Structures are given as structure tokens and as C-alpha cells.
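Example record

One chain of 359 residues, shown exactly as stored in the release files.
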Amino acid sequence: MRKLIFILSLFGGAAGIAVSYWSSVTQPPLPPAFTPPANPYPSGIYAEGIVESDQPSGEDINLYPEVAGTVKHIFVKEGQEVRKGTLLVQIDDSIERATVEQLQSQSQAAFTMLQELKAEPRKETLDVNEAQVAAAQAALKTAVDELDKQQTAYTMDPKSISKDALDTAANAVLTAKTNLEVARKQRDLTKAGAWVYDINNQERTYTAAYKSYLSASALLAKYRLIAPADGKVLTITPIEGSYVSPQGSYDTYTQAMDPVLVLGTSEIRLNVRCYVDEILVPRLPDPSKMKAQLSIRGSNVKATLIFVRMQPFVSPKIELSDEKQERVDVRVLPLIFRIENSEKLKLFPGELVDVYIGE
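Predicted C-alpha cells for this chain:
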């Protein structure tokens, strides 16, 4: 038993010595995965940059609908090249389309009524009025003849016709003359056509109805998201059946309202928008002498940048983080550079890069 304990003690001591030895041995460091970026200019300044599509002004086009509704159909895919005027997204417009059709019918009815007023007098109505005049003339002749007969009889024998009957015949003639005058005036009124005030009122009614139809049609067109320029679809946030509004579409990953669709130019033409801290702005070189270089984070890739333009407005540094609610004390000046030979690099809009600016 003592021999066994002795042997185990020797084995444990040897193991401890071996562990101590191997623990004291220094392992050679692993080579770095990439060389940390360094400033290539003696007095260059550093700025954060973001890759974006080449735009003559502004940034990538963020598309928002002007109306709210459910996405009925998406006609494009991410990465697809589109032409100006291409239909991108269709929002459900069933209610607004019915409203447009109703207003169109009302406008057409008002126009038809206007045409009817301008087309007066109607031949059939005028024929009725002429017939009424002829009937009134015949009734007057009948009454006059009856009065003449009674007056002749009264002249021959006053006792043969009562004075009351004679007066009634005379009144019948006056009534017939009045009826004839009314019939003639009614005929003349029909010949004159519609009153000018009625026509003017109907014209305004039609104009109002037609403009309401045009307004509703213009609103109906807002349910179609159209490409405002040639470009490439970079992102599509919603899917068919999701809800969108003028504030955008809810992104379940960022939990924020993002643009429904982002449209940029071809990836072959890429720019870098970098933000220079306001305290470094006085150190910026003259644009004619300005040089810049980008470094892709986590790699040894570098590329030469060509100065394009400056947006001469110092703004809060919220563009890279997109945290609109946080308090921002740093302000930056945007500079735009073109990436030389960008088609040889695997860069995509929205990628963050390091930018060094010198002369």
C-alpha cells in the first residue's frame, strides 16, 4: 500500500512539473486577419463614410406613398433595373376607384343635362306648342262665330236671345283670345330655348362635377407607386398584404418606419458620402487639391476616391446611426467622393467605410 502511494506521488509530481513547463512556454502570436488601416497622408484627416449610388444631388431616392392602404401587388424585385415611369407597387384602391366611377357618372349626367339645355327647343315640344296655338285659334273662331250668331239674332229680335246669353258669348270670345295669347307666348318661350341663366348654372354644375372627378382620379393615381427616375431597386420593405402609409412601412427587424422602396443608380457607379466633424472642417484641403482613400472595415481592401462635391450645410451626425430621437452634440459636413474603378470592388450601397482625406 505504501509503495502504491509512493508511486502515485511520483506520478503526480512529474505531471505537475510537466504542466508547469508547458504553461511557462510562450505561444507565438497569431498573424492578424487584416492590416489595420493607416492614414496614407502626412496631415490627413479621418471621416466616416457610407457607400451610396451616384446621384447628381441629394441621396438615394426614398419612396413613400402619399396615401395609406394595403399593398395589393409588388411588380419589381430587389436588384432589378427599372426605367422612369415603371409601376413599382400597387396599393388597394377598390374604394377610391368606386368613388371615381361614381363622380365620373355624375359628371357625365351634368354634361348631358347641359347639352339638353343647349339643344332646346326640342322639335317635338315645339310641335305640341304649335298644335296648342292652332287649337286656341280654332276655339277663338268658334267663340267669335257663336257671338256673331247671337248678336245677329239679338239685332233681329231682342227677345229671342237673353242679355245674359249674349254676355256669356262675349266673355267666351275674350277667354278664347286670352287662351290664344297664352298659347302663342308658350310657343315663343319654347322657341327661345333654355334661359341663359339656366345654361350658365348647369355649366358651373358640370364644371364642379368634372373637377371633382379629376381630383378623385388624381388621388386614385396616388395608389400606384411609380419610379420617378431610371435606377435600381435597392430595398423593398413591405410584402403583399402588409399595410403602408405616408410614414412608410413598418420594418419588423428595425422596429421603425422605413421607406417603402429605395431606388438608386447602378452599382457600377458608386459614391462615398463621408461626414467630416465640424472641428476638422478648417483642416480640409482645397477641393482642387483634395485626395482621399477609403478602407473597407475588416479587410485590406483600399480604393482611391475622387472628389465630386460638397454639401455646404453642417448638420447633426444622425445619418449613419439613423437615431432620430437621440440627442446629438456632434455636427458634420457631408463630402461626396466617387470611387475609382468601383466595378472591381465588391461594394454595396449602405456599406460603412473609413475615409482618409489629404492633399
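Notes: The mean pLDDT is 86.
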